[in-house]
Inverse folding.
């Protein structure tokens, strides 16, 4: 369907644009006809009719697009179409005049109108060419919007593919470390290994459900982290303690699944595990306005902090996932002082019903 006819507002705007054309046509016809009344009787209906006839230029423009390499074909097609349209327009005017002349008792109107053939024909050709130019502009704008839409769709698909690939790297990594822990416990603590297997099964079952989503509430992620910590506490016992400070306003913020768990895993594996006495993992989650901040701190061996900590894929995946979801609105900061290692995440707090 013609794009102008698809919307009532577009049609009204289009017909309004023809009002000054009707005025000009009335002035031109008044010079060849006997009165302003005759000029108005002829010009007004013919302007409305030709406004709709010029809509056919849309299909001519589609048949011979501007990108067509044959300029001659383009010019010939437009000239022939405009000439035929103008002739048809003038002929319809003849029919209208022949009907109006006896009805309104305007003798000689048809002869006077016929004498206006050349100015009417020239104006018809010019108006049709202007309509064709306007339709070419509509086609270019429509193609531009389509191209932008396709580019955006491809960008979204590429981002989703990258996020899925990054998330796929996390699950095997976590499973590999957990199985290693279970293997170590089978010798020194068989009952602990059995409990750890049950907890791991529950954790994986839940993570499969939540991991299928693009984003989950922070509260769900914290429950996953709690399950993970229960698994690790079986392995490390009293050597591992956790201090949590969670702002309730953060619970409804949406985050990518398994975002915090890799950070907790890194903190334990690279920070607390190498220490004979173990240590305390501190988690601080708070919300400041529209931004959410997550801070994780853990003790480390000062001699190993620059070479060992953060070597796994977990931290890099967190950085990449946030960058792809929130672009320059997210930040991942890593710092250390003496025997403390700190990871700080900052990104917009998007709640259900909003878009990142």
């Amino acid at each position: 369907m013609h794009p102008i006819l698809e919307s009532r507002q577009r049609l009204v705007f289009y017909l309004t644009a023809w009002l000054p054309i009707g005025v000009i046509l009335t002035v031109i016809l008044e010079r060849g006809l006997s009165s302003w009344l005759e000029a108005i009787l002829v010009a007004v209906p013919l302007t409305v009719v030709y406004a709709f006839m010029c809509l056919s230029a849309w299909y001519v423009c589609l048949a011979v697009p501007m990108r067509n390499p044959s300029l001659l074909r383009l010019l010939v097609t437009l000239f022939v179409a405009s000439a035929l349209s103008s002739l048809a327009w003038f002929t319809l005017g003849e029919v209208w005049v022949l009907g109006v002349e006896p009805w309104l008792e305007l003798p000689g109107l048809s002869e006077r109108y016929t004498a206006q053939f050349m100015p009417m024909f020239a104006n018809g050709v010019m108006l049709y060419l202007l309509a064709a130019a306007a339709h070419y502009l509509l086609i270019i704008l429509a193609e531009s919007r389509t191209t932008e839409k396709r580019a955006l769709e491809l960008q979204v698909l590429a981002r989703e593919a990258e996020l899925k690939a990054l998330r796929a790297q996390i699950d095997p990594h976590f499973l590999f470390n957990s199985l290693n822990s279970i293997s170590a416990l089978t010798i020194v603590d068989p009952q602990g290994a059995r409990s750890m297997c049950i907890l791991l099964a529950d954790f994986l079952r839940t993570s499969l459900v939540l991991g299928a989503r693009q984003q989950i509430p922070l509260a769900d992620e914290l429950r996953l982290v709690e399950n993970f910590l229960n698994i690790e506490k079986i392995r490390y016992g009293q050597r591992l303690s956790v201090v949590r400070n969670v702002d309730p306003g953060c619970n409804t913020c949406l985050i990518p699944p398994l975002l915090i768990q890799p950070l907790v895993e890194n903190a334990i594996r690279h920070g607390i595990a190498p220490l004979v006495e173990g240590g305390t993992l501190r988690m601080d989650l708070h919300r400041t306005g529209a931004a959410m901040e997550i801070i994780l701190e853990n003790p480390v061996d000062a001699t190993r902090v620059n070479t060992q900590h953060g070597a796994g894929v977990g931290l890099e995946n967190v950085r990449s996932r946030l960058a792809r979801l929130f672009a320059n609105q997210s930040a991942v900061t890593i710092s250390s002082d003496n025997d403390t290692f700190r990871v700080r995440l900052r990104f917009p707090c998007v709640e259900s019903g909003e878009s990142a």
Remarks:
- Confidence is low (pLDDT under 50) at residues 307-311.
- Residues 8-150 form one domain.
